[in-house]
Amino acid sequence: MVKRLLIAANWKMNPPPEGSLLPASPYLEHAAVDVIVLPGHLDLERCIAARLITGGQYGHPEPKGAHTGDVSIQMLARLGCRYVLCGHSERRRDHHESSAFVMEQVVAALEANIHPILCVGETLEEREAGKEHEVVKHQLKGLPEHGEITIAYEPVWAIGTGKTATPQQAQAMHAFIRPLLPKDLHAATRILYGGSMNKDNAEALLLRPDIDGGLIGGASLKPEEFAAIVKIAEGITKK
Ligand code: PGA
Q1: pLDDT in tens, 132-166
Q2: How many A from CA of 160 to the centre of ligand 1?
Q3: Which of 35, 106, 107, 160 could crosslink 116 through cysteines, CB 3.0-4.6 Å?
């Protein structure tokens, strides 16, 4: 089975980059690689209308209810989102999302027929204490046995810092993660790397056997740089 790489643009709390909603957008679906965008909630509809493959950066697991200011995963699905990020480290930090709550999001996404991208990763202190495996294992606890998911390994110390994990460090963690996934999903699940991925380090990372794509923040806001990363991914296939 040939696995297509997935390149996801996480725009965080930023407007869509210039030209991203135009017909020649580099953020559009490509023939040989899956490209998706994760805009702020208020820009979702515009991205979907521009025919980008779109996902939410967060969705509440309950379908509706008294959660002022929140948007549910079911609402995202109804709007036409195909993906949703679950448990990005900035949400875990800013909104105190626990791993159990994040897992509820994964389950809710599968029930709503939208593809969850579960984000995991350790902080610098956790890595320095040698606890990175324990932390990531805990964050993967309770994964549903069936249903298509994607994992994004994003070491917190590499996000937005310009300090990327080395391809060896990333590959080692991805290889640790894969056998922890439910049996049916071992081979087919894509495990993305995220954390200061850019056009200069993307190739070395994406060539590693267990790195199946990238979740890209800063570099995804620069259309030319993002296009360069997509081009690199187009040239790589995974078994
Ligand atoms: P970064 O962000 O590429 O700016 O490090 C990645 C992410 O947080 O998803």
Answers
A1: 999 999 999 999 999 999 999 999 999 888 888 89
A2: 5
A3: 106
- CB burial of 140-176 (b: ≥16 within 10 Å; e: otherwise) equals beebeeebebbbbbbbbbbbeeeebbebebbbbbbee
Q: Does 6-19+35-234 carry CATH code 1.20.1270.10?
A: no
Q: Which of 90, 122, 132, 154 is catalytic?
A: 154
Q: Which among 154, 164, 192 is the best mutation to test ligand 1's pocket, defined by most ligand atoms within 8 Å of the CB?
A: 154
State the alpha helices, DSSP H only, in the chain.
44-49, 73-79, 89-94, 99-111, 124-128, 132-139, 167-177, 202-206, 223-234
**What is the Cα–Cα distance from 61 to 59, expressed in whole angstroms?**
6
Cβ contact 189:150 at 8 Å? yes
Q: Return the residue matching tokens 């963690």.
A: 173
**89 Cα to the center of ligand 1, angstroms:** 10
**Rounded to 5°, angle at Cα 229 from 228 and 233:** 120
> For residue 44, how far is its CA from the centre of ligand 1 (angstroms)?
19
The per-residue pLDDT for range 7-36, each reduced to its tens digit, is 999 999 999 999 999 999 999 999 999 999
Is 8 within 8 Å of 55 (Cβ atoms)?
yes
Which ligand 1 atom lies nearest to the CA of residue 152?
9
Residues in a beta bridge with 116: 84
Catalytic, 154? Answer yes
